[in-house]
Every structure is written in C-alpha cells, then in structure tokens.
Amino acid sequence: MPEAGGFRRLAIIGLGLIGSSLARAARQFGGAGTIVAIDRDPAVLERVRALGLADEVTDDLAGVAGADLVILCVPVGAAGAVAERMGPHLSPGAIVSDVGSVKVSVVAGVSPHLPEGVTFVPAHPVAGTEYSGPDAGFSTLFQGRWCILTPPEGSDPEAVARVQAFWEGIGAIVESMTAEHHDLVLAITSHVPHLIAYNIVGTAADLEAVTQSEVIKFSAGGFRDFTRIAASDPTMWRDVFLANKDAVLEMLGRFNEDLAALARAIRWGDGDALHDLFTRTRAIRRSIVAMGQETAEADFGRGRPVTDTTSSARGEE
Amino acid sequence: MPEAGGFRRLAIIGLGLIGSSLARAARQFGGAGTIVAIDRDPAVLERVRALGLADEVTDDLAGVAGADLVILCVPVGAAGAVAERMGPHLSPGAIVSDVGSVKVSVVAGVSPHLPEGVTFVPAHPVAGTEYSGPDAGFSTLFQGRWCILTPPEGSDPEAVARVQAFWEGIGAIVESMTAEHHDLVLAITSHVPHLIAYNIVGTAADLEAVTQSEVIKFSAGGFRDFTRIAASDPTMWRDVFLANKDAVLEMLGRFNEDLAALARAIRWGDGDALHDLFTRTRAIRRSIVAMGQETAEADFGRGRPVTDTTSSARGEE
C-alpha cells in the first residue's frame, strides 16, 4: 500500500479552493498515485493545467472511470446532479466521497445515483479560507484540522478506513458521527456564524446615517473580522443554507433568543449579566487556542509588528 | 517643540492594553517628554515598573499635577468618577483627553469635573486586540489606524491641533466628528459586532444537542473568528454597551430586521436573495483591504504555511 488509503487513481470533481487543495495535498503527501482533475469550467481547467495540479485534466465526468477514489468538491446543491451524471461511469469497487459542509442532503442527493458495488463515504474537512478558485488552494490546508466522516449505517468498514487513512495522510484529524448530528454541529460552529457575518456586513452597507466610507475606515473596531467570512464563496454558501435549512433555522432561533435577552440586559442596565457572559466567552476562546484550532497571537497575528520588542501577547483579566 | 504636540509631561491614567500601548508609543515615537503612569491596581503598577513603561509610576490621581496632557484610559463607565477625583489636581492650561469607545456619555461624565482653563479633547483610537493589561500593549498598535476626535463645539482649536499632532506622531490617522455621530458609527463598526460575537459564543456554549467539546473542535468552520472579539475585556465592553445603549439598540434593531429577512429567504428557498447579499458583502471586504485596514492574506494570514510554495492567495469569484 504505497499511498495512504492505498488509492491508485484519485478523481477530484471541482477544482476550487478545496478541490485544488486536495490535489496539491494528495500529490505532496502521497494520497494517491494518479490524480485526475474534472471541472466543467474552462477557465478553471486552464488554471489547473498551468499550475500542474493533476496528471489528467478534463471537463468530462466520464473521467471518473478507473478511479478507485472519487471526491466531489462541488457546491452541495450540485452534488446530486453531478452524481447522477457520473454514476454510469464509476468503476466497480470505487469509493465515492465528498467535502460538503452539509451531509444529510448530500447523502440523499448522491446515494441513489451510485451503482451497486460503489461505496459512498461522505466527508467534510472543517477547513477553508475566504478565497475561492484553484489559485487559492494550498497543500497544507487540512493540516491539524478536523475531517468529519458520516458513513451511513452498514457502510463497508474497509472503505471507511481507507478514506480515513487518506485524510490522515494529508494531515487531518478524523472523527465520525451521523450525518444528522454533523448538520446540527456545523449549523452552530459554521453556518450560523457565516449567516450573521453576512448579515451584519449587509446591514452596515445599507445604513443611511453612517456612510459606507465610514464603515470601511473604522472597521478595525471589530467589524472587519466579520467581513472575512462574509467574503466566502457566495454559491457555496447559498447552497449550504438551503441544504441545511432546518438545523440553521433551529440554531438561529437559539441565537435570536439569547440576543433578545442581551438586548434587554442593555436596555435595563443589567451590567452583571453582561459581565458574566463576557467572562464566560473569554474562557471558550482559551479552550480553542489550547486545542490547537486557533492561534494565540493577538489579533490573529494580523499586522503584528515583527520589529516591536516591547510587546508580549500575554492575556490578562 | 521637540515632541509631536509639544507636550512636556504626559499623564496616562489606566495602564491596560491601550494605556500601556500609549506609554510605549509616546516613548518610542516621541510623543511627550516625561511620562507619568497612574493606576489604582497595585499589580498593574508593578508590571508597569517592571516593564519600564513610564518615568513616574503612582496610584495617586494627584500625579496629574504639572501634566500638560492627561489621557484617561479607563473603562468608559469609570471616566466620570476618575475625572471628579483628578479635577482638583489638574494644572491650568492642561489638556485632558481619553481613549473611550463611547463619546457622548464620556463627555457628559468628564466635562463637569474639569476646572476652568482645562480643555477636554475627547479621542477614540480605533485599535486594540483581544488581550488586556499592561503586558498586552505594544508601541505600534496605533500605526495606520484611525483615531477619532470629537471636540465639543467651541473647543480651543489650538488644543485640538496639539492632540491631533500627538496621535499623528504615534502613527494614527486623525478624523474629527461630533460625539453623537461617533457613537452611531462605532455602534455598527464595533459595538454590535462585539455584541453578536459575545452572543453566538454564549449560544454555542449553552447548547444541549452539541457538546462544548464539539464546538471547540469544529470551530475552524467560522465560529473561532467570533471567539477572538468575544475574548475582549469584559469590563470595558460591559461599560460600552451600557454607555452607548441607544445607538447600540438602534443598530441592533436594523441587524435583527435584516436577519429576519435572511431567515425568511432560507425558509422559503430564495437562493437568489442569498447569493445577491453574499456577493455584495464580498466587495466590502475588498474595500477594507484596499484601504489598508485589513490584511489581504487568506484567513488573516493565520496559520498560513510559510513552506508552501504552491499556494497563492489570489481571490476569485
């Protein structure tokens, strides 16, 4: 088994940020023998060729033939349609996986189109940046990040183990859970955060009393942090919200309840309630930093001067 | 006039992140002759002495005597009380300034306690990190960041010009506006962003269906970005929300309206409305980056591998 997971031929469908990072990672860390890049966008294919990201490059979904691992890296709303068109070309024994941020709807959309003898092992690497496209990818995107597998009950354990080995080979930490639980967890750790970031950036842009120029100039007060995730790929995120509607609306309901209580505390001058919450939330960041999922550097290390020797980023309370 | 603004003796009251950064900056970039550090917390004074941040260090507000520039760097809720106690010690002709994130309430709290012949030039440097205390400060915190002055009508233009020169001397870009407008602008660019960040971190911590360990592990999906500003100083932020109640609640009302519309678009599957918003918000980040208020590096440059030569952070749509 020369490669992690033992895959000879890896087909990646969709060479955006994630797909192109996968191609780079698989090549750099030995995730597969031959890499086939499939994308319907001629501009993307041209960049993939220019960057030398794959051994074979095509716009034809028939390119999945002969692959023992096929990874769908398309927006979750497109996964079903792509599966339908590639299904007839899949080789017996192939494993199909994906990288979608929503799992229940992807499983429902993809599974019916896979022929007998092909196993679907849904996966979601919890990693990304605000940039899109094949130029934005990089080989170490998945290092130290979690990748969640949501194998349906009764999945072939051998296939699951091989997909796990593939992800571990490119640096990810793998955890398994049900698709339903995944969608709930990600609704709060990813989808609702994106939704409220998109929302506040939109709110700020639409104000009459405050100009857009003022919003931009004084964004270092906190607003600019939100603009990063509100700069994420619009198509990907449209699909995420539509595909994970129930969990997103449920978590958003909780968020709204809590926000109403907070607004009430402000209106009635309940400083203790505010201080208590703000102290609790500070501790949660410490846990995230301690678990290696976040930098401890002040301000994300963003713009931190390298020449300033008087500084130290020790947090105090 | 050897120093920017021509101040001979600068008294800084409150040596937290901002106050200690001011002391470092004034010393490094020549903002004042002698620096006096005043803080009521013995632990802070000990660190200020150990770090050598000031020429004189005291817990006595009488230390403002002889200073021609006094800068209040205390939580906005404490500004009035501190002004009342230091007022009798202020020297004729002194300029008092502050760094508070709210201006109307600070002006109302401080002004009545200043003796005749002392000018108040309220200021707010839009800069900071999620860390607190004298060890967290650094001299370049204000470089390239805006500092907003809100001089009341009829202020001595000479005093305002000197405070402006002081801030420009330590690297800030200065803009003036009314205190009322400041509070509205900062409500949307800083206060409401902090409020919703604190809120979602609290919501996530309180869920039953998703464990805290899951929230922490899978935070790279977006959530962790919010934890940075939700790790900001609890006392400072409690005071901000109480002091800028009206503007915060007004902007929060706008945010909530927009969020309700977004939730409705999700519920009814209006993908176009989502895609339109998500495309608009992406453009706003570009403007912030273009204006030098944000890094263009993917993911804030956080955890970006220095060894990965295949990557390029070019954004695409």
UniProtKB/TrEMBL annotation, chains A, B:
Superkingdom assignment: Bacteria
InterPro entries, per the entry: 6-PGluconate_DH-like_C_sf, NAD(P)-bd_dom_sf, PDH_C, PDH_N, Preph/Arog_dehydrog, Prephen_DH
Pfam families xref list: PDH_C (PF20463), PDH_N (PF02153)
Domain Prephenate/arogenate dehydrogenase: 8-296
Record keywords, A-Z: Oxidoreductase
Transmembrane parts of this sequence: none
NCBIfam families: PRK07502.1
Name used for this protein in its record: Cyclohexadienyl dehydrogenase
Annotated organism of origin: Methylobacterium iners
